[in-house]
């Protein structure tokens, strides 16, 4: 639920981008800065979330963040000024940054080394929401000539608009209902997190060793910085492609609007489906292997998109392959680094900030250049450039993470072998302790048997004799005379033996 609404909130901007421009009476090149505003808020929210996540309940923090996102989604359809639209995009970015940082760290703190499939499931729900969002925006609330009375009430009465402009504004108003639907879903999910807050305790942090000290890699800071750049290029390309493939297909490839929306949904659909399969792949494949496969697929498909961007069949096929190849990179990257070093709230915030910077810079750059160079496949060039960059930087990260003599965490298999070896040694020690206890029990039993024989010998060697009126007993007679010292000794031995 958390990332489903996150994916819907992010991807709805692509199909409705032109409608938002019409709603504020601007050209798409003149409002591309709303990507910068949303990503700037995303950066601030990531930094704030990294700090707040370590000092307050995560479920409560996520619930409040979702309510803030819902309020922003409700307000967007009523924004008629570009500045006001940008302000609400910033607020949505802040809340989404908190959600992204908190969700990833919550998964790692909950499942620890076994978080791979759960991390894939978290990001699968993001892709599922991104897949549904264009359908809601364009296919459910698509352009038609019905239901325009509400728009007619908002049109200025001083000057009648041109028929084409009026029709575009009416279509814009209908697509804005997608924001209302997504905002309502956000409100519903926020109550689930408040319910978790009221029913659950604090999540246990599993990022520490047995001594309570965090385990970090030898080149921890270098790995975090390189993964920061890695996510900058990856997320920027992902958001740019998902946001502008609709516009690219409609304007550059001259597809009908319905087919362009279908192409957008194909990208997010293959993206979501591959992440769904990755939940099962993560149980039997290493994160590094999954990253290598994704890099290979994204580089090859982006190269073909650059070469055959005018061919519709190639556009459909390569878009699907590109979406599938981009699917598991982000969750696999976090799971991969978690094998070598501890990922805290601050570390996760650094990753999300890198992703937010990529989301801010690259889509804004594409949106700006599309209006200047409409006859060039700039979106495909960007995809190839970022795929090549990530394919180069990942081997460098792997070399640093696997450097010899690193005091940080070892890969999961080696840690499991050491854990099994430690458990085996503890079992041997416990077995040795049990043997010592058994030997002590046998020695104690032998001592009690010796005491029994002594008592029996004393009884046999001291027959009772009456030497004078029965007033005196033999000095060795311990079995007669209730108050004699020998009788007390025998009772004491019996009592000790019973104990």
From TrEMBL:
Residues 433-460 have a biased composition (Acidic residues). Its main location: membrane. It is a multi-pass membrane protein. It is found in: Membrane. The keyword Protein biosynthesis does not apply. It comes from the Eukaryota. The chain crosses the membrane at residues 31-53, 59-76, 83-101, 121-141, 177-197, 221-249, 288-308, 315-337, 349-371, 378-398. Residues 430-499 are annotated as: Disordered. The keyword Transferase does not apply. Keywords: Membrane, Transmembrane, Transmembrane helix. PANTHER family: SODIUM-DEPENDENT GLUCOSE TRANSPORTER 1 (PTHR23121). Belongs to the major facilitator superfamily. This is Major facilitator superfamily domain containing 4B. It comes from Oryzias sinensis (Chinese medaka).
